[in-house]
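Late entry, written up from scratch paper. The run itself happened at the end of the previous shift, but nothing got recorded in the book at the time, so transcribing now.
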Amino acid sequence: MHHEYVAPNPSPYLVPNLDRALSIVELMAQHSEGLTIQEIVQRLKVPKSSVFRIVLTLVDRQYVVRDEKTNRYALSARLLWLAHMAVAEHSIVEKALDLMRDLRDQFKETVCIGSLIGRQFVVLDQVLGLHPFKFMLDVGMHVPLHSNAPGKCVLAFLPEDKREELIEGMRLERYTANTITTREGLHKELGEIREAGYSVDRGEMIEGAHCVSAPVFDRQRYPVAAIWTTGPSDRMPMAQFSEIAPSVIACAHQISRRLGGAWS
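Output as recorded:
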């Protein structure tokens, strides 16, 4: 259930359009499913023309994304990245990088860390593999939750009500022949992930790209992030997933401990 947005008391030194833009951003932060222009107008009680111009500016600057099908606007991963940069010395990434390098050195493949924002999974940082050919992701890249190892990993360990809310709103788009495209199939996979303690990607978003991922927990045992190692299927075949998983889990466990969390 969402709380109604309450604007702060006005100040004589405010820049009106900047104030409205920040009010829109704060309102969107309370509605991960996104809002239409009319819904923003109704909640903030500001002119539609002003809202429209501000939102389009935020879209142009990549702070807001528009859902083409529903015409709803939601915050993008760009704000998460700004926040990450502002508190880097205290961030999950800062506590994880040396452990990620150790994991990279063990398997020679790229190791990444990411987190859930809204309804998508966002790449926070990576340590590139040591092979001449290696996978490299864009920091800030956001992907659906159902079609990759870290997205499924975080989804599996979310509180049940939050998990079901996210699944209910998913389109389960197919990217490859191995993508999970039914809710029944996704629920089955998530149950297996919770039992095993890790998740895998069998080329479900990119053909030939394999991954093994494990969750990072905070002190409330909430999955605040996931780490994963990724490589081409010929170097990381499915038969080796169970051999790679213990090292990925151990790395995630160590990061969790640094955050004051634990797996048990």
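The longest strand covers residues 223-232.
(Scratch paper discarded after transcription.)
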